[in-house]
Design a protein that fits this description.
- With 76 residues, this protein is mostly helical.
- The chain folds into 2 domains: 13-42; 44-76.
- Helix content is 61%, strand content 0%.
- It has 3 helices and no strands.
- The protein has helices at residues 15-29, 31-37, 47-70.
- The longest helix has 24 residues, at 47-70.
- The two termini are 45 Å apart.
Length: 76
């Protein structure tokens, strides 16, 4: 994916301000953040692992709701 960032220098603008505008435009384009995110490859969890973690979350939620109904914990 190509991202083009173009800056034109005006007559009364110095090099530092042109560079500052360029860096700001590159940062806003999100190109550097995308490259940094792709730096290390992380594998997606398997379907079984996702299923098991979902079961744990549902069990914790159910336990919390039971405790809340019994008055053992305060409501958020």
């Amino acid at each position: 994916m190509a991202i083009n960032v173009e800056i034109t220098k005006s007559n009364n603008e110095n090099a530092a301000s042109v560079l500052r505008r360029f860096v700001k435009k590159v940062r806003n384009a999100g190109f550097l953040q995308e490259v940094r995110n792709k730096r290390y490859y992380t594998r997606k969890p398997s379907a079984l692992r996702r299923k098991n973690s979902k079961i744990v979350v549902l069990a914790r939620t159910a336990a919390y709701e039971d405790d809340r109904k019994m008055g053992k914990t305060e409501e958020k």
